[in-house]
Amino acid sequence: SLKDKESVKFNSPELREDLIVNASKCCNITFYIEIKLNYPAVLDSVVVNLNFSLTNSNLHATGKDSIGETSGTEGVKKRTVSLNVEEEGEVELKKNSDISLTISSSVFPHGENKKYLYEITLYYGVSDRDSHLSFYSSPVTLVTYGTYDYNDKECQEFKPNPLSNPIIIFKGNIKDAFGDEDLKEVEMNIKYQDGSSVSPLDIKGLKTETGDYECKWDYTNNSPTLKAGEYVANLSVTTQNQHTFYQTTSFTFIGCALDSWTNYTAPATILVGKSASYAITIRNTGSFNTKVTIN
């Protein structure tokens, strides 16, 4: 809650990574404000002026916003203000540094009763309102470690119709200079050869400290439609500022593959001249419907 000639200061968490900001581009702050007048006369109103000061060891910006005469009946309003950055070109904000934002107010009552009480509530950095500071920058760094089989072994080739465990594990790393709180949505799509996609896969196991993630795709229900060839996994990361970053990795489903198993366990010892009978089942775990010869 703000009063006349009062200031409030917000400090961001420390940056998780170095952040390159293009100071020549826009720097905006989005917040919400609610102004209430308590028992005003008919013509009473108030004007609210806000001043913004943004500081980091390597970056400084200022801005202003004015809410014209209001009777305090508009409710909570969303505001976006552009800040003027003193620096030019690219500015590097160092890892473990923070960003300080100071908002100060000036209030001017108008009307017949200039002594009426008013309330100014400022919402910034709260989870239930999309309030944030945005730079022209790329805070997200994506690293793909690769694809793995169900035994957690690195693998690029998979069988479309395996006997068991039809699973592909995707591993990688997501780092956001503003921290995990800045990540609004993380998804992965598997792109078929015809251009269609599997329903988005949830990224689970995102580790806060390292940014490592793991995503599993169980393709049991997709096996009948999988064809031999290369497939693409698309990772998309959307921040709170609605900026989306992409990365892709590829893997292959093979065309020819045979797996075999038996339902009989031979005894530990088979005497000379004796035999053990058992049945061998062979399954085509590839995608080609072609005849094969087994010797």
Architecture overview:
The chain is mainly beta and 295 residues long. It folds into 2 domains: 7-134, no CATH class; 140-253, Immunoglobulins (Immunoglobulin-like). The protein has strands at 7-11, 19-22, 27-38, 45-56, 59-70, 76-85, 90-93, 100-110, 117-123, 132-134, 140-148, 157-158, 167-176, 183-191, 201-202, 212-218, 229-239, 244-253, 258-262, 280-284. The strands form 5 sheets. Strands 1, 3, 4, 5, 6, 8, 9 and 10 form an 8-stranded antiparallel sheet that branches. Strands 12-18-17-14-15 form a 5-stranded mixed sheet, with no helix packed on it. The chain has a 3-stranded antiparallel sheet with strand order 11-13-16, with no helix packed on it. The radius of gyration is 31 Å and the shape is elongated.
